[in-house]
Amino acid sequence: MSEGAQPQQAPTSASAVVRTEYTTRVVWGEDLLEYNFGKHHPMSPVRLDLTARLCRELGLFDLPRVSVAEPYVASDDELATVHTREYVAAVRRVSADPDRPEPERGLGTEDDPAFAGMHEASARIVGGSLVAAEAILEGSAVHAVNFAGGMHHAAADRGSGFCIYNDAAAAIQRLLDRGVGRVLYVDVDAHHGDGTERIFWDEPRVMTISLHESGLTLFPGTGFPSDVGGPGAEGTAVNVALPAGTRDAGWLRAFHAVVPPLVEAFRPEVIVSQHGCDAHHLDPLTNLKVTVDAQRELALSVSALARRFCEGRWIATGGGGYEVVQVVPRAWAHLVGIAAGHPVHLQTPTPQPWRDYVRERYGKDAPTLMGEGADTWWRSWEIGFNPNDPVDRAVMATRKEVFPLHGLDPWFD
């Protein structure tokens, strides 16, 4: 198991559960369900409803060091810290009149259908991540979670890939504007975090690391190892382009072979992470094959990195994830539990009231356990590089491009 990972069997005593004393701010409000592209769109608000209800039934919202905060609709000035004002105006126009799309700006397309109130719904997600950033900045929380966020495809001047405004980028920019010297952004969505990367392409104070399925087989077709950042910021864009079919062991091996050494070299003051859970083997839109168990373990590893390098300061967002009953609620409830210092064990039964709600409201059978019983053992990179393994080749391609830019040896560090 990796650093920070928890055993996959039920604990036999209270001491078997790792807890921290960090205060945690969770952003949630029913208004976030208004981000809704329509009944048949993959980005269903059902996933948020079921996540919040599962967190509540597990008691995560009621933990003594957890506070739940409502999001707000971010102002145009706040949006303009990472988006052009022309684009914000275009979103407002389409939001007011969905029958007049602006597809050249990614508004009113198949991926991003126009809907009434789109501006407010999208800006509210940004407001949620700004609430998280402010909690970190003011010291009222050390960890913060906006599982409705993670809209990583939105670029400065256009929407893309189910994303209208880029909330994680806005949170990062707020941190920088308020004096944070270096921010690490880690994106483990199956899709490349292209929007966030591009917004900070020339910004040496931000390192973006995206661990995703290769653009050769998946939207948006970007995020290759040679994409390392703009002039003066070389080495601050990091892309691990994994082969389709990558499973738990390869996914976790790739993360640990790339992320911890770069975090140690970059020395961030805050970590912002995007936990799109569409790398799951049941996800209908992607080709990676990981489990909820591995996604939980990776979140534990991000938390451990924040604890080691950032005095715990960590903002976690959601992202993609389109198996809205079996996968998303469990993955993000684990994320909330980890951020709250109260990891939920994989053999914990899902609460019966939650399962009843899923059946009555959506006519589907919910999972009965919080885990899948997966074997998440992974080989440390120190064991050696296997040139016949496509995951190892992907990892080495990234290390060879980026590690020397940080004084690291791509073979041994």
UniProtKB/TrEMBL annotation:
This protein's record includes keyword Kinase: no
Keywords: Acetoin catabolism
Pathway membership: Ketone degradation; acetoin degradation
InterPro entries in the cross-refs: AcuC, HDACs, His_deacetylse_dom, His_deacetylse_dom_sf, Ureohydrolase_dom_sf
Matching Pfam families: Hist_deacetyl (PF00850)
Keyword Cytoplasm: no
Domain Histone deacetylase: from-to ranges: 41-336
Family from the record: Belongs to the histone deacetylase family.
Protein's recorded name: Acetoin utilization protein AcuC
